């Protein structure tokens, strides 16, 4: 039998009088409920359904025969029925009902098509262009759309789903309770054949879907069922056991038509919807399932699984197919639309991401080769990184990174060629090894745009840092580009840039994940110790872009001023060194910073040797000018390298903390490098005082380790034995007998694994620790000497000895603070007091910190001498070294916390004195002490409110501008903590701020006055409307005055910040947040 054709067009006169309302009324009549639903028995539900369908069909025929207004619709339906080549009446009432419904739907489509064809809208009125255009006559209202949707649901439920084979789609009985009733009511033995019924319904629904309005209603809800029916009609294998009648068997033409229709609708609908429905049809792998629907999908026929896999591969190979597959899987996983409310939960499901990654990484059978597949798919995978919507971007980013990792692990060569190289292409263009075309070598030419560079850095951050899977192919792809990334990082440190943190995280990540040798080689390239390492092309430079990003351009022609060019080069190299130090400060825990520091020390030792074995001057007669130039160039390069190493070591020593070495091997390497440099200096008779001190310190460090500061194992002694040849060389050649003896004793201690240790080793260890903390002197007398004789150790094996302190314990104030206080003897106290006047800065600062720690621990001996301690701290305030006067400031603050009444008065007098008594720097240091006291007192500061405020207000009138600014800063800090206690003096404070902000000649003082207002509003917050109620208007006028008339931009910025604080306070005051609270009262 041929495929059913759409009904022919009825006469125009009939169509003109037959409107959409009449057809929709007929459809409503077919859907009207009937019968009695009071019984809950299953057979009664079957009977009620059949009786309802019969009565509705009879009611429709009665309408057609009796009502004259329905005759036009009857004529149209009959004409369409005559054109339709299928059996409309059957013993199965469900098929008769479905046939009549299909005829009415075809009538509806024909009527809508004809109405649109006859529609001619009026010309728009130019006087009212904002008026809406005339509505198309085939437009369905919301209620009409609901009616059509209900009819379509009946058609699919009665005419498609019951005739699907087991395993094809989700059966009706497991969808709804009504579906289970329908499945049992349908009579499959009655004519026409079940396959023919399915074919008729699918063809009619596809015919209806050709109309745009009806098509959206059909495919939105029933695409999966129609696709399942077409799969069964076109691809199900034919089992020819018993030949069926000719009219009940589909012809090959009809099967071919079904296959073509399936591919047509798959190409027309929203692709994620097609992917989702095909995945549902395909089902999951055979497994133990608890869900009913999953159980059914586990029995999907093999032919349908193969077909769905083939169709899914075709979806994937289409343009934007990757995005369609990803959206289809994610939206079908219960997350709604991609980026919806549950998108964050879906993004956290790694299993779905792994599933999608495996699907995308697997080459389908339709592809010619894996390389051609990767060539088509990889650009789409890269596009998954670049979505703007945050939630969608989060989902797609996780899928993209997982796919990247999967492809890179399965096919690293193809992933490198089609994924990594395109992603890293902007950085490859500006490498030293890149060949830049001559057309792009014009100065000012943009090699990499702002968008390309930002996108490249963001993609690298997502793939490397976020995914955090250090595959070899990923590390090898990024390794040559680290020099460019470091140069970009240095450029971003010069100004504000959104990619600065990304560059820093990328560099830190890969330096940690790389092999240590490769990481050290990269750091040598960053510091220019290895000039052969790939870096930024010498003709390229970074430049700020228009939209806040960075572009890479060809360098402009430099000026002829050689001094300016040299200055730019030196300053650039210095800043790169500092940025490298900042970067390495984050790599101390992993040991990379310590290893690189040792490499630099070894490089310094090599330079010492090379310096002594320097090339002799060439004879006066040169063979050519070229050789002379080459000789001069070598000398300059050698000097530059020496300066570079010294500069690098200086930066590392300044940036790195004392925890730079994380294990014994690094300490041993450090000592070995120092010994090698000392031996090299001795060999060339170039000994210096600095090298002697360094040698003593390094050998003392070994003595500390052997003295018990570190628990050494047998493997540690194996590492320490590397020092034996160097120690022997020092003991034989060094001129100082003390160092010679110490070297011999250290060799003995290392060789015996610490079993024998002389007194010289113990003294060297204690001397090294004394340099770190003078408090060690107090403990020296209380500790047992370590290893003075092996016989003592053998005679007293059970004697408990206090373990010596490590250098780490002696340098951490938190550890010392947490220890229980002990009695300090007079001798110990006097020694520390004398050390506080030591001319050596480290000794003086350490003594001050020890005194501060005793005050904090409430040592009785220290508290008895509070006046002497105060005098010492105040005298050291005037010291020029930062470490000394900061330690003194801390000591005064801690002492004031114990005796605030006695000490605060002296400090205020010292702060309020003039220039003739104390320098401005000393007064500012006293001001810092006062602020620390205010912070320490907390709520108790109210007791000293009057002297503090009066002192700071008098300081605002000081002739020195620096002191005025300091007083204002202290006043702001105090007012921020007074809260409601500020009320009695609020007018004085406000008048002072207004006068200073408007009249002071120094810009720093005006900035400080405005900043006080910011601190005041920020500290009071919502209390400002109560505390500052009388002066709030004056402060507002002051801020507006500053914003309008103040020439200084910083002061304007402070004023703007204060206005924002005030705006937030007033908004919360006028519109307080609504609290949804429910008061529950319990009546007893």
Automatic annotation (TrEMBL):
Residues 770-780 have a biased composition (Basic and acidic residues). Residues 829-940, 1032-1064 form the RNA polymerase II assembly factor Rtp1 C-terminal domain. It comes from Cricetulus griseus (Chinese hamster). Residues 316-589 form the TANGO6 HEAT repeat domain. Residues 783-823 have a biased composition (Polar residues). SUPFAM superfamilies: ARM repeat. It comes from the Eukaryota. PANTHER family: TRANSPORT AND GOLGI ORGANIZATION PROTEIN 6 FAMILY MEMBER, TRANSPORT AND GOLGI ORGANIZATION PROTEIN 6 HOMOLOG. It holds the Pfam family ARM_TANGO6. Belongs to the Tango6 family. Residues 18-315 form the TANGO6 N-terminal domain. This is Transport and Golgi organization protein 6 homolog isoform X1.
């Amino acid at each position: 039998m041929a495929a059913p054709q759409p009904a022919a067009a009825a006469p125009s006169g009939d169509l003109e009088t037959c409107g959409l309302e009449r057809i929709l009324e007929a459809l409503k009549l077919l859907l009207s409920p009937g019968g009695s639903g009071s019984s809950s028995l299953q057979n009664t539900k079957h009977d009620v359904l059949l009786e309802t369908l019969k009565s509705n069909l009879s009611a429709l025929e009665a309408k057609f025969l009796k009502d004259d207004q329905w005759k036009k619709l009857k004529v149209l339906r009959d004409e369409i029925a005559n054109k339709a080549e299928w059996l409309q009446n059957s013993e199965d009432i469900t098929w008769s009902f479905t046939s009549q419904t299909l005829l009415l739907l075809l009538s509806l489509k024909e009527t809508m098509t004809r109405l649109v064809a006859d529609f001619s809208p009026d010309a728009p009125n130019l006087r009212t262009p904002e008026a809406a255009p005339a509505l198309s006559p085939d437009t369905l209202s919301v209620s009409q759309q609901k009616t059509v949707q209900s009819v379509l649901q009946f058609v699919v439920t009665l005419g498609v789903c019951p005739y699907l084979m087991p395993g094809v789609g989700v059966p009706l009985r497991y969808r709804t309770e009504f579906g289970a009733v329908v499945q049992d009511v349908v009579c499959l033995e009655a004519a026409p054949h079940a396959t023919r019924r399915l074919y008729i319904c699918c063809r009619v629904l596809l015919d209806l879907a050709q109309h745009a309005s009806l098509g959206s209603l059909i495919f939105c809800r029933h695409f999966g069922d129609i696709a399942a029916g077409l799969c069964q009609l076109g691809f199900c294998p034919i089992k020819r056991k018993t030949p069926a009648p000719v009219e009940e068997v589909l012809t090959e033409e009809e099967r071919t038509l079904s296959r073509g229709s399936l591919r047509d609708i798959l190409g027309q609908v929203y692709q994620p919807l097609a992917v989702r429905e095909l995945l549902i049809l395909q089902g999951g792998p055979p497994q133990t399932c608890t869900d009913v629907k999953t159980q059914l999908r586990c029995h999907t026929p093999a032919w349908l699984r193969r077909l769905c896999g083939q169709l899914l591969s075709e979806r994937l190979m289409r343009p934007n197919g990757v995005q369609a597959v990803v959206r289809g899987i994610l939206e079908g996983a219960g997350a709604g639309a991609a980026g919806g409310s549950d998108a964050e939960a879906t993004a956290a499901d790694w299993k779905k991401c792994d599933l999608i990654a495996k699907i995308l990484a697997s080459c389908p059978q339709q592809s010619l080769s894996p390389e051609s597949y990767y060539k088509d798919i990889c650009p789409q995978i890269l596009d998954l990184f670049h979505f703007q919507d945050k939630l969608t971007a989060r989902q797609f980013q996780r899928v993209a990174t997982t796919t990247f990792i999967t492809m890179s692990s399965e096919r690293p060569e193809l992933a490198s060629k089609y994924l990594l190289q395109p992603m890293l292409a902007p950085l490859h263009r500006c490498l030293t090894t890149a060949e830049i075309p001559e057309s792009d070598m014009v100065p000012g030419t943009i090699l990499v745009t702002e968008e390309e560079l930002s996108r490249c850095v963001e993609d690298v951050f997502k793939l490397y840092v976020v995914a955090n899977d250090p595959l070899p192919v990923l590390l090898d792809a990024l390794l040559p580009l680290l020099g460019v990334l470091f140069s970009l990082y240095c450029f971003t440190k010069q100004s504000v840039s959104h990619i600065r943190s990304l560059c820093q995280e990328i560099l830190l990540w890969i330096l940690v994940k790389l092999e240590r040798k490769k990481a050290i080689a990269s750091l040598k390239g960053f510091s220019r110790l290895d000039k052969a390492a790939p870096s930024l092309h010498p003709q390229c430079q970074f430049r700020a872009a228009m939209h806040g990003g960075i572009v890479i351009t060809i360098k402009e022609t430099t000026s002829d001023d050689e001094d300016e060019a040299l200055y730019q080069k030196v300053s650039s190299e210095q800043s790169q060194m500092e940025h490298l130090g900042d970067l390495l400060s984050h790599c101390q825990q992993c040991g990379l910073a310590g290893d690189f520091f040792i490499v630099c020390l070894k490089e310094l030792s090599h330079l010492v040797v090379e310096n002594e074995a320097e090339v002799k001057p060439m004879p006066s007669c040169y063979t050519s000018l070229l050789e002379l130039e080459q000789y001069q160039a070598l000398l300059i390069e050698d000097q530059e390298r020496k300066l570079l190493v010294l500069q690098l070591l200086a930066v590392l020593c300044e940036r790195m903390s004392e925890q730079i070495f994380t294990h014994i091997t690094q300490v041993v390497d450090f000592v070995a490098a120092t010994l090698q440099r000392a031996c090299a200096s001795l060999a060339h008779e170039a000994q210096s005082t600095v090298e002697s001190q360094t040698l003593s310190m390094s050998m003392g460090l070994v003595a500390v380790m052997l003295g018990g500061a570190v628990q050494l194992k047998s493997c540690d002694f194996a590492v320490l034995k590397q020092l034996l040849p160097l120690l022997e060389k020092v003991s034989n050649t060094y001129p100082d007998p003390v160092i010679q003896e110490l070297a011999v004793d250290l060799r003995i201690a290392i060789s015996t694994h610490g079993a024998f240790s002389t007194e010289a080793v113990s003294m060297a260890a204690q001397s090294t620790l004394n340099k770190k903390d003078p408090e060690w002197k107090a403990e020296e007398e209380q500790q047992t000497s370590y290893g003075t004789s092996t016989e003592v150790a053998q005679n007293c094996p059970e004697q408990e000895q206090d373990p010596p302190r490590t250098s780490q314990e002696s340098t951490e104030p938190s550890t010392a603070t947490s220890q229980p206080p002990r009695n300090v003897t007079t001798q110990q106290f006097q020694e520390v007091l004398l050390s506080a006047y030591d001319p050596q800065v480290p000794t003086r600062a350490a003594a001050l910190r020890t005194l501060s720690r005793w005050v904090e621990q409430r040592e009785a001996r220290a508290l008895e001498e509070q006046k002497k301690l105060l005098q010492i701290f105040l005298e050291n305030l005037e010291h020029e070294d930062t470490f000394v006067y900061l330690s003194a400031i801390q000591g005064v603050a801690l002492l004031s916390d114990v005796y605030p009444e006695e000490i605060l008065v002296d400090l205020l007098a010292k702060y309020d004195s003039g220039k003739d008594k104390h320098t401005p720097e000393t007064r500012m240091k006293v001001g810092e002490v006062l602020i620390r006291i205010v912070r320490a007192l907390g709520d108790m500061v109210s007791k000293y409110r009057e002297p503090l405020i009066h002192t700071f207000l008098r300081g605002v009138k000081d002739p020195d501008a620096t002191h005025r600014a300091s007083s204002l800063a202290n006043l702001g800090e105090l007012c921020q903590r007074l809260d409601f206690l500020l009320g009695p003096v609020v007018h004085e404070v406000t008048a002072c701020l207004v006068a200073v902000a408007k009249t002071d000649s120094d810009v720093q003082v005006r900035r400080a006055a405005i900043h006080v207002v910011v601190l005041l509003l920020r500290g009071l917050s919502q209390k400002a409307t109560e505390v500052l109620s009388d002066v709030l208007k004056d402060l507002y006028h002051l801020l507006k005055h500053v914003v309008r008339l103040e020439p200084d931009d910083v002061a304007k910025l402070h004023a703007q910040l204060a206005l924002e604080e005030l705006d937030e306070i007033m908004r919360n005051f006028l519109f307080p947040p609504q609290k949804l609270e429910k008061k529950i009262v319990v009546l007893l």
